[in-house]
Amino acid sequence: MVLKYFWQCRIVGEEQEKQRLAQVIHDSFSPHLPAAFFLIPGIREHLEKTRSVEAEQLAKAAELLNETTQALAAGVSNRDTATV
Q1: Inter-residue contact 33 to 69 (CB < 8 Å)
Q2: Cα–Cα distances in Å, from 42 out to 27, 32, 33, 50?
Q3: SS3 assignment, position 59
Q4: Distance, CA of 27 to CA of 60 (rounded, Å)
Q5: Helix, strand, coil in percent for the chain, rounding step 5
Q6: How many CA atoms, within 13 angstroms, populate the side-chain half-sphere of residue 38?
Q7: What is the mean pLDDT of residues 72-78?
Q8: Which of 8, 38, 55, 74 could covalently link to 47 via disulfide, CB atoms 3.0 to 4.6 Å apart?
Q9: What average pLDDT does the segment 35-59 reach?
Q10: pLDDT value of position 16
Q11: Global pTM exceeds 0.70
């Protein structure tokens, strides 16, 4: 009985920590991501006129940023559906 209670408390603690981390990520990055997504195309367009290599590097960085954002969103989404 004690062991069962221990494991239940541990699972609850792990879920609370996941929720806390998700909130930290949301609060820390959410305000900045849309701004970055809106700024990147304009900067890239400007760079394409004069610095094609840098424009290509910026495009790759934007792609990585987008992939990371999608992976984070999927992780949070999977976490949410797993607790339902």
Answers
A1: yes
A2: 26, 16, 15, 13
A3: helix
A4: 25
A5: 95, 0, 5
A6: 5
A7: 67
A8: 55
A9: 86
A10: 80
A11: no
Per cent of the chain over pLDDT 70 is 81
Return the SS3 of 24. helix
- Which residue type does 25 have? I
Instruction: Copy the structure tokens of residue 1.
Output: 């009985």
Query: In this predicted model, what pLDDT tens digit does every residue of 54-71 receive, in sequence order?
Result: 888 988 888 888 888 788
Q: For 35-39, which contacts have Cβ atoms below 8 Å and span 24 or more sequence positions?
A: 36/65, 37/62, 37/65, 37/66
Residue 27 has pLDDT above 60, yes or no: yes
Q: Which residue has the tokens 């797993």?
A: 82
Angle between helices 32-50 and 52-83 (to 10 degrees): 160
